[in-house]
Amino acid sequence: MADEKEFELVNNFINGDEKSFNKIVNEYQKLIYWNARRMLGNHYDADEITQQVIIVLYNKLKTFKFNSSLKTWIYKITLTRSLNLIKKNKVKSFFNLEDPIANVKNENDIIKNFEDKEKLEKLNSVLNELPIKQKEVFILRKFDELSYEEISEITGKSIGGLKANYFHALNKILTKLEDYE
Q: 114-149 pLDDT, tens per residue?
């Protein structure tokens, strides 16, 4: 989505045009879902984060100042929400307060429509073994095809540090995927 178009949609929404918000959601909903899906490793959590991010957009879009692109702002929100859920799940796991919904298998899991489930599970398993910093930069770089400059803007981390984390993540993933085969 071009910046001028984003600017127009955001301003139209601020002025009361709900259709403009729906266009923004239609443009970014898949990006939000897949970024969260790769960070969290499952459909249910990704779906929850997607809903949360859309609600945040609806409530906070009026405060967006275009200091970055709308896409970068949405990535920041998605990443922050995903990291918060990872921390929350770690606390739940520590106190053994698992969410029973997360364990329920859903035959209508949309992932079946998009990717081979077995390969995705292997990749998710490997991604979940990575440290958060490495997982974060790998997902943003490899799946979302963001530049190091964009990732630096989203995460607030140095480009050199991001490159190092990506390098270590890639090596670990390649090694672990070789072990699967």
A: 556 777 778 888 888 999 999 999 989 988 888 999
Token digits for 72?
A: 């970068």
Enumerate residues 6+ apart whose C-beta is below 8 A from 29: 50, 54
Q: What sign does the dihedral 34-40-45-50 (CA atoms) show?
A: negative
CA–CA separation, 95 and 83 (whole Å): 19
- Other Cβ atoms less than 10 A from the Cβ of 70: the count is 21
pLDDT digit string, tens, across residues 51-72: 999 999 999 999 988 888 899 9
Dump the DSSP string for 54-101: HHHHHHHGGG---SS-HHHHHHHHHHHHHHHHHHHHHHHHHTT---GG
Residue 18 CA to residue 80 CA, distance in Å, equals 26
